[in-house]
Design goal:
The protein folds into 2 domains: about 15-240 and about 300-335, HybD-like (Rossmann fold, 3-Layer(aba) Sandwich); about 245-295. The protein is built from 13 helices and 9 strands. The chain has helices at about 15-25, 55-60, 80-100, 125-130, 135-140, 160-165, 165-180, 225, 240-260, 265-270, 280-295, 305-325, 325-335; strands at about 35-40, 45-50, 65-70, 110, 150-155, 180-190, 200-205, 230-240, 300.
Length: about 325
């Protein structure tokens, strides 16, 4: 029996995962990608530039700049580590804005996408709750605003199912009235690896499409649509069941290889033809079984309530420090004393 698996692919919103998949298929580095990696105290920062359309097509990511923070230790809920991540995030985000030509006095609109009633999708609204908004001070008492603060507003527009209005339309109306110089959109994403769920933050200058994490792409928040530069911040909070099952095959193969002392023939005897399939083909078979039964579930860790609050606080604190120089100075002084 010949199965057409071309419609199936590993679903991920993370550029670093898309790059890894493309390199595995390409058999080596993909031309047109520039990667720079730093790692310190359990925080891995990957800066990835997709430089041309050919590279964009190969990895399935829009041409642009991506920063990924990977911190597996966040699962331990270490408050000191969270503070370090927030500090690193603030520094990288400040540099990211400068790279995009965003001035220190630019007006910023923060948009928290997602459904506050659904925990894995509540990242955006939770960040909005914790960011420092100052636009009303600039509008009402501009002479009393201390140096080191900028004009920041925030909105959590809800989701189409709650409001009946596309998030992009809500934001467009706000942009037309308030005239921000930059939009920062925060949303939940999907990962191909459960290990990256709630431990990874991605920043990109390409904007964002609400619902993309669950394959429900609609009108996006992008510079082309809104007329304003849009930086996207995303955290993978979910993973597809088919992706997990697919990963289990790799883990089982590695386990049998270890148990047999590296005897791949023995592993193949146990795993059969699955060892001859590449990742995309294997995922296609898994989806071929699960989707007709309605079992390709969207999965999130059982500790999602604690994880989502922690990562939202990290992002909100990092944004406050990156957007307001006065806040960053105060935090640095407190941290060093």
């Amino acid at each position: 029996m010949n199965l057409d698996l071309r419609e199936y692919s590993v679903r991920t919103d993370l550029a670093v995962e898309s790059k890894a998949i493309a390199e595995a298929e390409h058999g080596g580095p993909v031309p047109g990608l520039h990667e720079d990696i730093d790692e310190l105290d359990g925080i891995k920062v990957t800066r990835l530039d997709v430089q041309d359309e050919a590279a964009s097509q190969k990895i399935g990511r829009v041409k642009g700049h991506y920063i990924t923070f990977e911190v597996p230790g966040l699962r331990s809920q270490d408050t000191e580590l969270q503070e370090k991540v927030s500090s690193v995030f603030a520094k990288e985000f400040s540099g990211f804005m400068k790279k995009l030509g965003i001035q220190s006095n630019a007006k910023v609109l923060i948009v928290g996408l997602g459904n506050w009633n659904v925990t894995p999708d509540s990242l955006g609204p939770l960040v909005v709750e914790n960011v420092m908004v100052t636009r009303h001070f600039f509008e009402l008492t501009p002479d009393q605003v201390s140096p080191g603060y900028r004009d920041v507003s925030a909105i959590a527009p809800g989701v189409l199912g709650l409001t009946g209005i596309e998030s992009s339309d809500v934001v467009q109306g706000i942009v037309d009235r308030t005239k921000p110089d930059l939009i920062i959109a925060i949303d939940a994403l999907a990962s191909r690896s459960l290990e990256r769920v709630n431990t990874t933050i991605q920043v990109a200058d390409i904007g964002i499409h609400p619902g993309s994490g669950i394959g429900n792409k609609r009108r996006g928040l992008t510079k082309e649509i809104l007329g304003v530069p849009c930086i996207a911040i995303g955290v993978p909070t979910v993973c597809y069941a088919s992706t997990i099952v697919n990963n289990v095959f790799d883990m089982m193969t590695a386990h049998f290889n270890d148990e047999s002392g590296g005897d791949q023939a023995q592993s193949k005897q146990i795993m059969g033809l699955l060892t001859d399939l590449n990742e995309g083909e294997r995922l296609g078979l898994v989806k071929e079984v699960l989707e007709p039964l309605g079992h390709d579930l969207i999965v999130t860790p059982k500790e999602i309530d604690e994880f989502i609050e922690d990562i939202a606080n990290i992002i909100a604190t990092g944004l406050n420090r990156a957007l307001h120089e006065a806040v960053d100075r105060d935090n640095v002084a407190a941290y060093t004393h």
